[in-house]
Amino acid sequence: MTNQEIAQVLNEIGDRLDILGEDSFKVGAYRRAARVLEQEPYPAEALVAEGRLQELRGIGKAIATKVADLLREGRSPYLERLREQVPDSVTELLKVPGIGPRTAGRLWREMGISNLAELEAAARSGALRGKPGIGGKTEANILAAIERLRARPDRLPLFRVYDVARAVKERLRALPSITDADAAGSVRRWQPTVGDLDFVAASTDPPAAIRAFVQFPEVGSVVAQGETEARVLLSAGVQADLRTVHPEAYGSLLQHFTGSKEHNIQLRELASTKGLSISEYGVKRLSTGETKPCATEEDVYRMLGLDLIPPEIRHGSGEIEAAARHTLPKLVAHADIRGDLQCHTTYSDGSASVLEMALAAKDLGYDYLAITDHSPGRANAGGLTLERLQQQAAEVAEVRRQVPGITLLHGSEVDIRADGSLDLPDEVLARLDLVVAAVHSAMGQPRERVTARVLAAVRHPLVDVLAHPTGRLLGERDPIDLDLDAVFAAAAESGVALEINAGPSRLDLDGSLARQAHAAGVLLCVNTDAHATAHLASFMPWGVAQARRAWLTADDLLNCRPAPALMEWLAARKKRASARVGR
DNA sequence: GCCGTTTTCGGCCCGACTGTTTTCAGTCG
């Protein structure tokens, strides 16, 4: 059972305790333990076996015992007892913005409302009105919120909102009342999916900035508006908040609303041990009550004795301790990338020729590029027959002569077939410079089968890279049901590199899984899987951001190595493979 | 339920906005 699955159980326990009216700090403890586990790179299963689960901050005796029960029995007796007390559908009510646990619990206990349909019916008939704390306006808000909930998923892929986020940011920066503005929150942390957009601005006249913001053409409707902050629904279908402060406190504001929540909680705990208190307005010394606003984020962290923590790793998973010890890793940067190990051309489903891709990669200053078109089994994506692959080898050789100064590798993105065999014969794979294996079909196979299939590829002596390991497409296709711990262990053993696919709709592995892979001793690489020349440049930052979220340095990534080192790595794999295949 | 450089008990991050209230609870991030 993965840490994410355990976290789900703990979150559900939290939801149900909340509705039952349990102490909010007890509820918070379960939610916090869930967040901690979600970010924990080591499998909880291993930590339990070693008796070290309680070493995680936020997990004490009671929760550790419940997690151990869950892992041993495959179900949580405690959660099952709670499920008997609260019907499943009541937790649906929490998804309605404006309805929290208090209201949900009361609706259920006092009116017998136990799902969204009943809530909607009650609101329509006017039955809610007159209950303590609920008037006509709340009733209307509930109806509107249910409508929106039906129309939109609760989280959107980052790439779906990235452009509108940038447009709003630029519009804010252009306002005369604003001196600086950013998209903070999960956008700034490069989370693969976002719930809403958080804008922050430094303003000499906050009320004027707020008034201008709610009039932006991107804004569909105004949800809430005050003197210093506002919440709107953008026409693009995502909620956006703007918070403003005077410029001298902009660093405090930016830090505060970049989050994550867990990071900020830990930061404030640290502050309190130093007699300080942090808010979006500054750092307050409790002894004097004096607040010192911070103009930059560096100032905020420095006042706590910390190095500046990059937004991508603000998860509350060890970064604050590392910043205090001055041992934060030097995270990989876009400039560290020396080449790209997966791209497509017009030979299969790409839109550019081998020559065009090579020139584009050279323009980026890359040392190498691997051409990896699809294998024959992917006929619908123009997978190459053996004959076409042969032709392409000749063309690659020709382009090598035409474009000196970049190492062009001839490879294949070979299909891992439903039975775990590869879609090209060994003697063909052996002649390629680089073999990238990937699952593209039969993605609904049960866990054991699909895991065995991927393990077979990872252990195949001629495979160098496993591409987009989970196969998920953000907002479109769920990941395959893979036992990733087993895959990571096998990749660490066989030396196969796992891909962080930089395609904005993939981000696969994402930062959190890549961190787990790295902790298991796996080598990683960041590839764009470009299907056009423009993708080589525009996708890479998305992949690098995921690598940064995984705490990776340039040393941890195969394609940050200079060409000679990469060639050495490939040669060593070939040598080992021929020894094994020859036996 | 978790946690400890004043604490094994008594705290637990902080502030804005809304709606329904005459001073605040609930929600959100």
Q: What descriptors fit this protein?
A:
five-stranded mixed β-sheet; alpha/beta; DNA-binding; 583 residues; 23 helices; Beta Polymerase, domain 2; globular; seven-stranded parallel β-sheet; DNA polymerase, domain 1; Beta Polymerase, domain 3
Low-confidence stretches: none
Q: Mean of the pLDDT scores? A: 90
What portion of the residues fall into strands of 2 or more residues?
5-15%
How would you name the CATH homologous superfamily of the largest domain?
Metal-dependent hydrolases
The CATH topology annotation of the largest domain reads as TIM Barrel
Instruction: Please describe the biggest sheet, giving its number of strands, its sense, and whether it closes into a barrel.
Output: 7 strands, parallel
Protein structure class: alpha/beta
Order of neighbouring strands in the sheet with most strands = 11-12-13-14-15-16-17
What shape does the CA trace take?
Answer: globular
Radius of gyration: 26 Å
Rounded to the nearest angstrom, the distance between the terminal CA atoms is 37 Å
How many domain modules? Answer: 4
- CATH architecture identity of the largest domain: Alpha-Beta Barrel
Helix content: 40-55%
The helix tally amounts to: 23
- For the record, the CATH class of the largest domain is Alpha Beta
Q: How many β strands by DSSP? A: 17
